[in-house]
């Protein structure tokens, strides 16, 4: 059996609008009434996220002072995973077609995400994605999981998946961050990084994925291409 394990946010879902709305909300909340701030454009903001500029630095770049930047980062953390904001997430172009292709090719498909159960279910329902991922192929965090850092939590999820899933002849992981690359490499799984998510190419290169591709469609095409040197 051949298997593809895909991350959720980055290869399938575009979170940029949610993250930007939360940024705007936090900036608005924390600025003093008389204070002049410089709200970043969405493009500027997202490029900073993609080049992994810390939240506090984003706050400073927006005109907040050091104490406010601390507050900003805290408020942002408390807000970004709350219900009203998940509604701003959208499907990435071509993602559903890519999932259909994988399904039609008979490749075993699993999702591995740092979303909590309810956060994943919310998106599954909204975008009709549960048809691709039966419960036994969903690796996410329990609703009460205490997160540490993605780069530490994701390899734990990968260990759980590898212990539980039926053995596969060959496995690829697809993801958009250092956490995905690290989780795969720690467990000897081949990994393709996509540029459609929250890290730019330069950031992805630092973690040496096997390949860097534009998006999930490109990843799937490479896997399915019969003449491909990328054997699954
Ligand atoms: Mg991701």
From TrEMBL:
<dbReference type="GO" id="GO:0008967">
    <property type="term" value="F:phosphoglycolate phosphatase activity"/>
</dbReference>
<dbReference type="InterPro" id="IPR036412">
    <property type="entry name" value="HAD-like_sf"/>
</dbReference>
<dbReference type="InterPro" id="IPR023198">
    <property type="entry name" value="PGP-like_dom2"/>
</dbReference>
<dbReference type="InterPro" id="IPR023214">
    <property type="entry name" value="HAD_sf"/>
</dbReference>
<dbReference type="GO" id="GO:0006281">
    <property type="term" value="P:DNA repair"/>
</dbReference>
<dbReference type="InterPro" id="IPR050155">
    <property type="entry name" value="HAD-like_hydrolase_sf"/>
</dbReference>
<dbReference type="GO" id="GO:0005829">
    <property type="term" value="C:cytosol"/>
</dbReference>
<dbReference type="Pfam" id="PF00702">
    <property type="entry name" value="Hydrolase"/>
</dbReference>
<keyword id="KW-0378">Hydrolase</keyword>
<protein>
    <submittedName>
        <fullName>HAD family hydrolase</fullName>
    </submittedName>
</protein>
